[in-house]
Amino acid sequence: MNSMKKVQKCNKANFATKEDAVKKISDIKETDRGTKIKPRRSYYCKICQCFHLTSMTKKQQYSLKVKLDYSQELRKEIIKKEIEEEYYLKKFNIK
């Protein structure tokens, strides 16, 4: 039986090692093309198990994660309330 995990693919540039990603950042800095957004650091992606580049600082990325987590919690609460409402509408035959 094959014990290898199926790895998902990301739509981002993949780097097998952190060193490869850091090298790419260095290459981009050396060949500055005047773009406003430049990668600052690399990070490991648990989805595709490779390294990606980002222009966000760790603080910015954390802030974004907190906002996304909060948004997901709000969506869960809304769905829960909609399910409860539907339940009571059916239970009391309300249209």
Structure description:
The protein has 95 residues and is mainly alpha-helical. It folds into 2 domains: 7-55, no CATH class; 67-95. Helix content is 49%, strand content 11%. It is built from 2 helices and 2 strands, in the order αββα. Strands 1-2 form a two-stranded antiparallel sheet. It starts with 17 loop residues before the first helix and ends with a helix.
Task: Please describe the structure with a list of short key phrases separated by commas or semicolons.
mainly alpha; 95 residues; disordered N terminus; 2 helices
Give a nutshell description of this structure.
The protein has 95 residues and is mainly alpha-helical. Helix content is 49%, strand content 11%.
In percent terms, what proportion of residues is strand? Answer: 5-15%
Oligomer status: single chain
Q: What shape does the CA trace take?
A: elongated
- Terminal CA distance reads 54 Å
What is the number of helices? 2
Structural class: mainly alpha
Query: How many structural domains?
Result: 2
**Spans where pLDDT lies below 50 across 5 or more residues:** 1-5
In N-to-C order, the SSE pattern is HEEH
How many beta-strand segments?
Answer: 2
Question: Strands, helices and their partners?
Answer:
Elements: H1 18-30, E1 41-45, E2 50-54, H2 58-91
Antiparallel strand pairs: 1-2
